[in-house]
Structure formats: structure tokens, C-alpha cells
Amino acid sequence: MQRRRPSFAPLAALAAAGPLALAGCNSSQSALAPRGPHAGAVDTLTWLVFAGGTLIFLAVMLLLVAAILLRRDLTAWMTGNAFIIGFGIVFPVVTLTSLLTFSAFSSRALVTPAPRLRIEVVGEQFWWRVHYLDARGAATLVTANEIRIPVDTPVEFILKAQDVIHSFWVPNLAGKLDMIPGRVNSYVFAASEPGVYRGQCAEYCGAQHALMAFHVVAAPQAEFSAWLAQQTGDAIEPATPFLARGRQLFLDAGCGACHVIRGTPADGLLGPDLTRVGSRLSLAAGTFPVNIGTLAGWTSSAQHLKPGNLMPSFGNLRGAELRAIAAYLESLK
After folding, report:
1. Assign residue 308 a region: left if phi > 0, alpha if psi is -120 to 50, beta otherwise?
2. What does residue 198 show for φ and ψ, rounded to 5 degrees?
3. H, E, C per residue of the chain
4. 188, 157 in Cβ contact below 8 A?
């Protein structure tokens, strides 16, 4: 009988899958790449638990190997009272007490000064409504799917849900917190350096849960103040006849029944505020970048691109009409 040669195909497949898995690891949405004091405290505690767990695992494996190889010499020692008390009582008590003490002191880093900015975020299927609040709690600015904050400034996030349970999570900046209908949750965190940090709904909320992302853009205080001033007020007037036609087509198609564009008859409250949509990084809750092509595609095929969202597809619009509407929306900066 001919002896079969061992197959190395499974090992080769595993070796090939390793680099592919590592290629998906980056710092754009990772709790292991902290960019704020809250995420830093969580990161430190995480690595401590990982390191401690690894050392305990190695110690247990060492004892197991010793018990197998030296079972006769170790039998009396490992069945004695000293071994049982030491490894069964003293070691767990000391380890868990140390971990609890360190966790308690680490959590002090999560206690921040009084917030200097308050932002209300409402989770909806499947996007984020964002309100910037004044000292009295009134909304001074409404935007969607993108949150801009100043660096090194404690920000209080007031979290609500419009329909089902969502979960607000920006791994680089802080831990996750649920958004529950009929209940208000809040927490305070800050970004320690400028950057664009991706957030995600971390609670299954329906068919398009995976496509419910957002961005937190942290910028220096002067840049943030300039952005905030630029975002207020009415939408800019169309600069060309082509853009004016796009605005008129937008209104004629009934888009204003769901969307607001300040300074125009569009005053709908069901969908995102589009007054400054052209200045945002993404469209459809982090699904596509904002440009004329994606705006036109989203307008004509919203249900094809993101089935189950509340926006209908306007397949009745011709190509020239879609381009005019998309150009007008892209100009709203």
C-alpha cells in the first residue's frame, strides 16, 4: 500500500489568511489606538488584563507539563494543603484584589472637568441626528452623521434614540454607551489630538445596522470656532443657473417634505438637515463620500444602495435632473 504524503494545504491557507487578517487592522476605529484620556485609561486596563491573563495561562500550562512529566515527584506537593491554599485561595484573592484596585484608580481618569460643549446625538434608523446645544439646552445647530469638536475640550454627549436601541461608540476616544428609546444617557470625553475618528452603532438595530457609522472630527479651537460660525445661518444662494435649477428640481420633487435647507421652503424634519451637506465627509451615515456622483446615485437609488432606510428612490428623475440636484447639494458648504 502506498503511503499518503501529508497535505500542507491547510497550513498554507492559514498562513495566507494571516496577512489578510492583519491588513484589516488599522487605527481608524480601534480601541487599541487611543486618542483621548478616556480611551487611554481603557487601553491601559485592557493591556494589563491581557498581560496578566497570559502570565497566568503560561503558569498553568507549566504546572500541567510538570504534573505530566514529574507526576511521581510532584504528587505529594500538589495534593498538599500548602498548594491548595496558595494557588486556590491566596493567589486568586491577591490577583483579583490587585486588579480591582488598579481598575478603581484607573477609572479616576474618566472623571473629567465640567464640559465646555454639549452635543445631543439621536440615533435613528439608520443615521445620526446631531444637535449642538447652548447653555439652556436649546439647539443652536443641527447636522447629521458627523460631529465636530475642539481638541482638549471636555464634551458632554447627550444620547437618545428615536426608534429602537442603538449604541454610540467611538473606539479611539471612549467606550460605548447605549441609546434607549424613552431614556437619556450621557457621558463626557475629549480628544487629545486633531484627527478624524470613525464611530459606529454597536447595537444591532435593524437591516442596515452595519451601515450606520459616523465621524468625529477633532480640530484646534480656532478651526472649530470658524467651522461653527460657517455652519450657522441660511444655505448659500445658487451661484449659477445650473445650481438654481437643481434647487428648484429638489423642491419640485418633494424632497423638502423630509429635509431642511434653511433659507428655502424645504422644512421637513423626518430626514437629515441638508443646509451644509456639501461640507460633510460622508453620505448615508458613513456609507459613501460626499461628491456629485454619490449624491446623484443616492437620490436615484437610495433603496438599492441601503435597503430599508426611510428615503425612497427617485428613479423617475432623468440623468440631467439628477446631476443638477446633486450639484446643488454638493455646493451647500
Report:
1. left
2. -85, 135
3. CCCCCCCCHHHHHHHHHHHHHHHCCCCCCCCCCCCCHHHHHHHHHHHHHHHHHHHHHHHHHHHHHHHHHCHHHHHHHHCCHHHHHHHHHHHHHHHHHHHHHHHHHHHHHHCCCCCCEEEEEEEECCEEEEEEECCCCCEEEEEECEEEEECCCCEEEEEEECCCCEEEECCCCCCCEEECCCCCEEEEECCCCCEEEEEEECCCCCCCHHHCEEEEEEECHHHHHHHHHHHCCCCCCCCCHHHHHHHHHHHHCCHHHCCECCCCCCECCCCCCCCCHHHCCEECCCCEECCHHHHHHHHHHHHHHCCCCCCCCCCCCCHHHHHHHHHHHHCCC
4. yes
Does the pLDDT value for residue 27 go beyond 70? no
User: How far apart, in whole angstroms, are the C-alpha atoms of residue 216 and residue 165?
Assistant: 21
Q: pTM (2 decimals)?
A: 0.81
* Nearest-10 Cα torsion for 271, 293, 28, 227: -60
Least confident of 20-24, 53-57, 240-244: 20-24
pLDDT in tens, 163-205: 999 999 999 999 899 999 999 999 899 999 999 999 999 999 9
